[in-house]
Amino acid sequence: DIQMTQSPSSLSASVGDRVTITCRASQSISNYLNWYQQKSGKAPKLLIYAASHLQSGVPSRFSGSGSGTDFTLTIRSLQPEDFATYYCQQSYSTPLTFGGGTKVEIK
Amino acid sequence: EVQLVESGGGLVKPGGSLRLSCATSGFIFSSYTMNWVRQAPGKGLEWVSSISSSSRYIYYADSVKGRFTISRDDAKNSLFLHMNSLGAEDTAVYYCGKDLGLAVAGPIEFWGQGTLVTVSS
């Protein structure tokens, strides 16, 4: 199974900050990497697919990059509605696996 | 508008069974891979199972293989998860999800609101 490791597990940031979350796969997954946002008590929401493709309706302040084993989710200017938990997921092979999550909190 | 509505969750005793359903609308159900993902209380996301269009490909997490069965009824635009031999470790919110359609499985484009399964005596 492919293990996905996210860092950090949590971070505190202020509105307007640039935030970067990293995700590392235990083996190469090409660009089969997706990012989700989950707010408390809600279902996850797809933000980025195939490492760098912005899902329809997602604000352009979100971006993704990387290939192979190392990936990054960047929020260019953090907004109040962005405080949530973010998960990476590989869809290179089954079992589909998620990272442990990164909780973005208000500083 | 795409909608996915899960049902069938509830309290079940260890060793018991449960059948989850996911009613969908707003897209051509038969054309897409569908997924189940669960989340234990206070924990992260765990993929459970995927079923491709025409039920050609079916995948399970090792943690549920042999106990859970995924199925679909394209005529009723519905997805199911039959769960047997339930244990405390299966306690979670179960989400159904529609695939984006890039590959056989993943990413998950749309998610239902989830249904809570609690396994306890």
Describe how the helices and strands are arranged:
The complex is a heterodimer of chains A (107) and B (121).
Chain A: E1 4-7, E2 10-13, E3 19-25, E4 33-38, E5 45-49, E6 53-54, E7 62-67, E8 70-75, E9 85-90, E10 97-98, E11 102-106
Parallel strand pairs in A: 2-11
Antiparallel strand pairs in A: 1-3, 3-8, 4-5, 4-9, 5-6, 7-8, 9-10, 9-11
Chain B: E1 3-7, E2 10-12, E3 18-25, E4 34-39, E5 45-51, E6 58-60, E7 68-73, E8 78-83, E9 92-99, E10 108-111, E11 115-119
Parallel strand pairs in B: 2-11
Antiparallel strand pairs in B: 1-3, 3-8, 4-5, 4-9, 5-6, 7-8, 9-10, 9-11
Sheet-strand content of chain B, in percent, reads: over 45%
**SSE succession of chain A:** EEEEEEEEEEE
Would you tell me the structural class of the helices and strands of chain B?
Answer: mainly beta
Helix content of chain B: under 10%
The termini of chain B sit apart by 40 Å
Largest sheet of chain A: 7 strands, mixed
**Percent of residues in β-strands of chain A:** over 45%
What oligomeric state best describes the polypeptide chains here?
heterodimer
Q: Gyration radius of chain B, to the nearest Å?
A: 13 Å
Class of secondary structure makeup of chain A:
mainly beta
Show the largest interface.
A-B, 24 and 25 residues
The first-to-last residue Cα distance of chain A is 36 Å
What composes the largest sheet of chain B?
7 strands, mixed
Which residues of chain A sit in consecutive blocks of at least 5 with pLDDT less than 50? Answer: none
Number of helices of chain B: 0
